[in-house]
Design a protein that fits this description.
By secondary structure, the protein is mainly α. Helices cover 73% and strands 0% of the residues. It binds fe (ii) ion (2 copies). Residues 13, 17, 49, 53, 113, 116 line the site of one fe (ii) ion.
């Protein structure tokens, strides 16, 4: 019988960071023809993580001493990553421009995760009770899976730039709406 206590939110977040890092490392070697699909999977995982953090972790952080400033900095970085994903959505994934953007995105995402692990997570672990950490962890998992998975939207019939809402914006909205309703 497994009697290990359930994981708190920080344990879950760190596991997800390692998973995103691995997916990004694997993406570098992806054949150009397979990049669109692989990048959509990466985007899905990354966006679920960041939106669930915004909805569940960062409000809890704001109630801690010094938490507001840390939350503002990290949420700014998350918004920048979303803007970069939106730019990449308009590029041809087989192009060198796309891979140049990916290199920037990867560096920014790794830096952001490192800042969370150095500054945010230790504070949360220290100041939040273990019961609450487990409760936040359960809510984080629910928020992450609150929106259904969507397969990669293959070959749009109009140029992406002409769309009002691209697949990325739709994904972010879906997850945010569902997570906010928890
Ligand atoms: Fe984050
Ligand atoms: Fe994170």
């Amino acid at each position: 019988m497994n009697t290990a206590p359930p994981d708190g939110i920080v344990t879950l977040l760190v596991e997800d960071h390692r998973s995103v890092e691995q997916r990004m490392a694997d993406f570098v070697g992806t054949a150009p023809d397979s990049r669109a699909e692989a990048f959509w999977k990466l985007t899905d995982e990354l966006v679920r993580h960041e939106v669930a953090e915004e909805v569940i972790l960062y409000p809890a952080l704001r109630s801690l001493p010094g938490g507001d400033r840390l939350a503002d900095q990290r949420i700014t970085e998350e918004s920048e990553a979303e803007a970069q994903l939106a730019r990449m959505e308009k590029l041809d994934p087989t192009s060198p421009e796309f891979m140049a953007e990916f290199t920037d995105l990867r560096a920014a995402v790794l830096e952001h995760a490192k800042a969370e692990e150095r500054q945010v997570f230790p504070l949360v672990n220290e100041k939040v009770s273990s019961v609450r950490l487990v409760d936040l962890g359960e809510r984080y998992q629910k928020a992450k899976h609150s929106a259904p998975n969507h397969p990669h939207p293959h070959a749009p019939d109009t140029p992406p730039g002409n769309k009002v809402v691209g697949p990325l914006a739709a994904l972010i909205d879906r997850i945010r709406d569902a997570a906010n309703g928890l």
